[in-house]
């Protein structure tokens, strides 16, 4: 169950876009992949063709003790998505309260999915610290911190180093890594910040994704960058990052085709 958490101290940096396209990239390499949304914006599902009007999700029901796997939707091929769902303020607060106060809450909800053989999980988070990020961190194999090639992202590095995202070490398994998104080689400031982050992060910098208009267009058409614009710079960059993740986590390419499909959870 390799579990990858896509997080950031900042909003609007491309976490959801990266989480979705990594899901597609890992699925293309043969794994069965589940994308889980922990952000109440509930936007991750839109990257997998789930209609805007579809309000289903696991959060509204998770006040009760139940298996979140029941709300997994199939997104074609070996891709699955667990949407946050459309929730009231009260439901959101209950969910966050449970995450923060019941140490077994997340393990109960995600248990069957975490133990599903060969399933790769990519989880998307809201910006900054969250009860979900803190609760899932002990189970995570890798944290991918997404930053922009701008000074605001740069100024948040100490925030990450001082453990402000979860109050502790980000990852005890394979460590935490960074992705610089929307790097723009035409702009001096973007080049300067990218060079600074390359130097500062060293091996922890897993990849750089170019600023690429086809990413926005792919998002608007609810397609992956690989389907929408396979020869784009961003598709190339994300593919490289996915390959590095496969290598670092020792994901068995081809795992996804081995297991039977269960009607109940869609897995
Ligand atoms: N590499 C990129 N090039 C151009 N636009 C991008 C890129 N990555 C993300 N975007 C755009 O940036 C915006 C924010 O992305 P999103 O994934 O919603 O960020 P977050 O989840 O961090 O809030 C979206 O409009 C998305 O289309
Ligand atoms: Mg997002």
TrEMBL record:
InterPro entries according to UniProt = Cellulose_synthase_operon_BcsQ (IPR017746), DNA_Partitioning_ATPase (IPR050678), P-loop_NTPase (IPR027417)
Q: Name one Pfam family in it.
A: CBP_BcsQ
State the source organism's domain of life: Bacteria
Q: Which Gene3D superfamilies match?
A: P-loop containing nucleotide triphosphate hydrolases
Q: Under what name is this protein listed?
A: Cellulose synthase operon protein YhjQ
Q: Which gene encodes it?
A: yhjQ
């Amino acid at each position: 169950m390799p579990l990858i958490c896509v997080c950031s101290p900042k909003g609007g940096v491309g976490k959801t876009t990266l989480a979705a396209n990594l899901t597609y990239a890992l699925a293309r390499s043969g794994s069965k992949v589940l994308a889980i949304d922990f952000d109440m914006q509930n936007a991750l599902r839109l990257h997998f063709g789930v209609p805007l009007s579809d309000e289903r999700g696991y959060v509204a029901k998770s006040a009760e003790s139940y298996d979140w796997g029941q709300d997994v939707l199939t997104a074609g091929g070996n891709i699955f998505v667990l949407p946050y769902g459309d929730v009231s303020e009260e439901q959101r607060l209950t969910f966050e309260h449970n995450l923060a106060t019941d140490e077994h809450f997340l393990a109960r909800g995600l248990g069957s999915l975490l133990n599903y053989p060969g399933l790769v999980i990519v989880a998307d988070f809201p910006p900054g610290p969250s009860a979900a990020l803190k609760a899932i961190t002990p189970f995570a194999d890798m944290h991918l911190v997404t930053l922009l090639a701008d000074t605001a992202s740069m100024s948040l590095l100490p925030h990450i180093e001082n453990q402000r995202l979860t109050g502790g070490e980000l990852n005890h398994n394979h460590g935490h890594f960074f992705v610089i998104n929307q790097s723009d080689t035409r702009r001096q400031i973007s080049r300067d910040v990218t060079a600074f982050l390359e130097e500062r992060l060293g091996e922890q910098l897993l990849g750089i994704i170019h600023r690429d208009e086809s990413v926005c267009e792919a998002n608007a058409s609810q397609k992956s960058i690989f389907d929408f614009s396979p020869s784009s710079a961003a598709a190339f960059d994300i593919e490289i990052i996915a390959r590095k993740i496969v290598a670092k986590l020792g994901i068995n390419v081809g795992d996804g085709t081995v297991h039977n499909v269960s009607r109940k959870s869609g897995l």
